[in-house]
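Dear support,

I submitted the protein below through the web form. The confirmation email said the job was done, but the results page showed an empty box. After a refresh the structure appeared. I'm attaching both so you can tell me whether what I see now is the final result or a partial one.
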Amino acid sequence: MIRLTNLADYAVVVMAAAAREPGAKLSAARVAELTAIPSPTVAKLMGTLARGGLLTASRGVSGGFTLARDPTAISVAQVVEAVDGPIALTSCAGGDVHDCAMEGHCAIRGHWGPINQAVRGALAAVTLADLVQPVAAAAPQHPASVPLLAD
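What the results page shows now:
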């Protein structure tokens, strides 16, 4: 099973909470209340997401965080990459071949690129606007119908 890091998972939940209240200035405490994610984690994530250009931070009495763009213009891939960096299923696919014991003789190393592109493409196809829709309205594609590799 391939899993996102907990922080990337929480970041998607935080961004979905912000997308449910477009234009509202949200504090980390408010988002923690909405999501049941611990406040220190939310504060850290909101800072990271603001540095990644996905949230806009404003200071002062009426300060808080707002979405930097419309929810239709922010994909799950962008959220994950803001927290975890480029999406790569293996270390060699991310360019760091020195983490692999098979570095010098791996027969499939060159094939990870298209696989990673397919995974990133699937995450890029889902926006925050999609995530805030009721599940029945979102109508996810059946996994078998999503092409993994280009012919």
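Response: this is the final, complete result; the empty box was a page-load delay. The longest strand covers residues 55-58.
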